Amino acid sequence: MSVRNEPAITPELVKEHGLTPDEYQRVLAILGRTPTYTELGVFSVMWSEHCSYKSSRAFLGRFPTRGPRVLQGPGENAGVVDIGHGWALAFKMESHNHPSYIEPYQGAATGVGGIMRDVFTMGARPIANLNLLRFGRPEHPKTPYLLDRVVAGIAGYGNCMGVPTVGGELFFDGSYDSNCLVNAMTVGLLRADRIFRGNASGPGNAVLYVGSKTGRDGIHGATMASEAFGEGSEEKRPTVQVGDPFTEKLLLEACLELMEKDIIIGIQDMGAAGLTSSSCEMAGRAGTGVELNLERVPMRETGMTPYELMLSESQERMLMVVKQGGEEEARAVFQKWDLDAEVVGRVTSDGMLRARWHGEVVAEIPAREISDQAPEYERPRSRPRYLDETAKLDESSIPVPSDLNATLVRLLGSPNLCSRRWVWRQYDHQVMVGTVEGPGGGAAVVRLPQTGTGVALTAGCNSRYVFLDPRLGGCIAVAECARNISCTGATPIALTDCLNFGSPENPEVLWTFVEAIEGVSEASEKLDIPVVSGNVSFYNETSGSAVFPTPAIGMVGVMEDVTRAIGIGFSQAGMRVALIGQFRPQAGGSEYLAAIHGKTAGTPPALDLAAEARVQSLVRKLAGDGLLKAAQDVSDGGVAVALAEMCLRPGQPMGVTVRLPGPAASRPDVLLFGETQSSILIAFAPEMEAAVRAAASSADVLFVPLGMTGGAKLVIEGLIDAPLDHLRDAHENGLKKVLEHSRAGAA
Amino acid sequence: MKTAVVVFPGSNCDRDIYHVCRHVMRWSTEFVWHKETTLPAGTDLVILPGGFSYGDYLRSGAIARFSAIMSAVKSHADRGGAVIGVCNGFQILTESGLLPGALCRNRDLKFICAPVGLRVENAGSIVTRAYRAGERIRMPIAHADGCYQAGEETLKRLEGEGRVLFRYVDEAGEPSERGNPNGSLHNIAGVLNDRGNVAGLMPHPERCAETILGSTDGRRFFESLVK
Predict the structure, then answer these.
(1) Which ranges of A415-469 does DSSP label H, i.e. alpha helix?
(2) From the candidates A125, A127, A159, which should be mutated to test the interface with B, based on the most B CB atoms within 10 A?
(3) Helix, strand or coil for residue B122?
């Protein structure tokens, strides 16, 4: 088959399309002939790492994905879980790392736009956004610029959509100097019996193109996202798409309005690889074919070719299959919202993805084979050599700071522990009048006015831990998210992952990837939190240097009575403060070791998943019984930083005086700032102490009374005595200092 | 109270306002699409909600003022009917001339979502009757274009006629520079028209009208309308 005016297929052209000689042989075998130029483009994007998961698929099956609440597991646009009362949550997290490094505002904005489309194609109204951000060292010349523009891009898109951004995580480390991570998560609410899927069934049904016109932006974006960066990456700026949140808001409302009628068979977002992936995947899932008439696609520019139309990643577009005869009804809804909606093709029964251009066939590929026969690699893996080096940590070689108060102030103002208010002040975190606990705590809580119930949401990953021990780090990432959710009183029910790693062609990277999956899976099983959706982002490296392995976890939880939601702040004086769970602080892998002593070493704190499950269950019970005023886990920065955050959280800071357990430690620094797992600080009214103690005892969880809230200082007897206004100044100004690096540099 | 909530393309606080009017205040409430040319029969109150009408791609509110429904909103106001604009709704009211002044980009050029201190300046208006004069309250703001600007004459009239509804204040209750989140002249957060039936403000009373959301300071804004 040959097509007029298309370039001839040469080995060079094949190579430019990122297909290996073996992969090209596969193409020839599937087609039984030389591909057309358009077909070559289709295979190139569909078999890119980004779309095909060719290096990761072999390992992703390890994730536990089933559970009584799971209505839709991985493989769709988003996972869906039952939250009772006839309602469900659809959610997913996705990376937009490469585009965000090249063009931070648009890269981050379209990342948010893309994940929201994934969620509302399921029939869900997005109710919350979260994100997980990683940047290089604060003193790196690009860091302040990337941080400023990524945050602005997330804000610009999410705010305009009217979806609150309620939480997230921000972390700086030199491993991200030349490769930032921007992972966006959206959670949507839908009726449990009204789930829409990307399914092109019913030959004869209409294929409807909806939303923005197609331009030349983002062609081969998916391919770009599947390569490592080298010199001159910024020149790839034209492969980054430009976002239009206003059009997406219209698209959201129009789609949800149309979903109320009974004419949509299937729907899928045109994200990475645009029209190509949406049509292939919808036909592939249904075992049907799709015939497209490309000249009918609404175009933004003149002179566009079939190749460009198939590969464009223009944003804010949807592909829908509507019942034959329902075309006009669908079009009327989109007209109301001033959106383009064109019937661009039909579902067929021959299993082929066929694209025509003014009648001429320009591509004809068996739709199912393109995914089923996609290459799959189980590349070599080897344990990284660095692990032997990092594991050697001699705690005695670390000097004990002479002034612990000053160390606490330094930590609270350090880039990874300081307040993120500068960030989330730019996000509308209250629109939709549902935000009960907003950003700045461990997990956010959003109420559902329909039922009086609440959902708790969080995203996080201690990537330093994953670097130091990929399996344990993966385990801890899940445990910590679950702990944050449990601390609000909610029960964690499902998670999504976004696995950010370097090149899978590097055996050491692939080893950490597989180990991290194992860790995430172990914790997911033991804590009974299935994985319902996910995303893999490889090639997060520049010139051979990879980012910290970062299996970002996004998690949702539910609580029956949202009025029982607990925050992290000490809001009243005279409350008792205690610790439940384990308390075994250590220096290894800690933020303290990195921020104060400049060392990334040791191994992460040990995690006993059974003990973890017990302490989480206890904190949920205490919250559910109305016994608690505040709860927060001890994590990065140790117990001293956790207490300081609890003091500083309320609008009007509240002091506390505590005595830490154990004999006077020879390492007061480790006692205060060392990190531990399965450890939760709680505050409660004095009259509740007996009940709290009894509940802990019957749950077989250690209960350690620490002290009482009150005053205007943080006092840890014998170790810390710090006025809260000093701590607050350091905490609130930390991020401004990071941003000022750029101004100083520019001046 | 029969309420009409106008929905412009890009409105995103329409459902929030509806929720408070319908489920908290228990008013009869309807959405009105911007392409309509008339308000529902018997409408007492028209609310222009917050959001990003037309993406705010030109100037906030500058395109929405040309929507078909706006002539019906104007006629309603001309007849003395109550009209309220919150955030983007306030911007649309100034753009359409129903309220004086203009809302420009915030002083620090960034979107700000935060609770702010407000002082009730005029406790006799249709939206402030349930507050006490001089009372200090807190409401959230969420905007990039909330810096209130007006000519000197206009400001003098607004101040002289008691048409400043709310002023941004600091912790001490003073309308200082520090208490001013966006650079608004005279720390103005909300104003009233000369006839007293059209009100606009940047803060979001609908976001603080229920205990579960941490504050009910905005509840009395709505209660004022039926007092």
Answers:
(1) 421-424, 463-468
(2) A159
(3) coil
Cα dihedral A143→A147→A150→A151 (10° resolution): 180
b/e code A14-53 from CB counts within 10 Å (16+ = b): beebbbeeebbebbeebbeeebbbbbbbbbbbbbbbbbbb
Partners of residue B142 in chain A, C-beta under 8 Å: 159, 428, 430-431
* CA torsion through residues A42, A48, A50, A51, sign: positive
Question: Around A646, how many Cα atoms within 13 Å sit in the side-chain half-sphere?
Answer: 37
Of A16 and B93, the one with more pLDDT: B93
Is B110 at the interface with chain A, CB within 8 A? yes
Residue A142, beta-bridge partner list:
none
Q: Is the pLDDT of residue B102 over 80?
A: yes
What is the distance, to the nearest Å, from the Cα of residue A56 to the centroid of all Cα atoms in its chain? 18
Give the pLDDT band (50/70/90) at residue A136: very high
- For B214, nearest residue in chain A (alpha carbons): A436
How close B159 gets to chain A, by Cα (Å)? 31
Interval A388-427: pLDDT, tens: 999 999 989 999 999 999 999 999 999 999 999 999 999 9
CA A99/CA A238 separation, integer angstroms: 10
Which chain A residues have a beta carbon less than 8 Å from that of B62?
Answer: none
Report the CATH number that the domain containing residue B55 is assigned in CATH. 3.40.50.880
Residue for token digits 């008691």?
Answer: B162
Tell me what pLDDT residue A238 has: 63
Compare CB distances from A426 to B15, B51, B110 and report the shortest one's residue.
B110
Residue with tokens 């030959």: A203
Structure tokens at A187: 């959670």
Nearest alpha carbon to residue A266 among A288, A248, A282: A282
Residues sharing a CB contact under 8 Å with residue A253, sequence separation 6 or more, in sequence order: A337
CA-to-CA dists, residue A380 to A21, A466, A512, A546, B86, angstroms: 20, 20, 12, 17, 60
User: What's the rounded Cα separation, in Å, for the pair A685 and A25?
Assistant: 71
Question: Do residues B39 and B76 make contact, with C-beta atoms less than 8 angstroms apart?
Answer: yes
Euclidean distance between CA atoms A483 and A555, whole angstroms: 11
Query: What separation in angstroms does the CA of A507 have from each of A338, A514, A540, B55, B67?
Result: 51, 11, 15, 47, 60
Is residue B87 flagged as an active site residue? yes
Task: Report how many domains make up chain B.
Answer: 1
The answer to whether the beta carbons of residues A558 and A491 sit under 8 Å apart is: yes
Q: Torsion-angle region of residue A678: left (phi > 0), alpha (psi -120 to 50) or beta?
A: left
Q: What are phi and psi of A616, to 5 degrees?
A: -65, -45
The rounded distance, in Å, linking the Cα atoms of A674 and A584 is 8
State the residue for tokens 């500068």: A422
Residues of A known to be catalytic = 50, 96
Q: What is the average pLDDT across A593-603?
A: 97
Question: Rg of the Cα trace of chain A?
Answer: 26
| Structural domain that includes position B75 | 2-226
Cα distance between residue A132 and residue B165, in whole Å: 40
Q: Is residue B13 annotated as part of the catalytic site, yes or no? A: no
Nearest residue in chain A measured CA to CA from B215: A436
Q: How do strand A206-211 and strand A340-348 relate by DSSP bridges?
A: antiparallel
Band (A666; pLDDT cuts 50, 70, 90): confident
CB contact burial A452-490 (16+ within 10 A = b; e otherwise): ebbbbbbbbbbbbbbbbbbbbbbbbbbbbbbbbbbbbbb
Find, among A259, A122, A293, A286, the residue nearest to A200 by Cα: A286
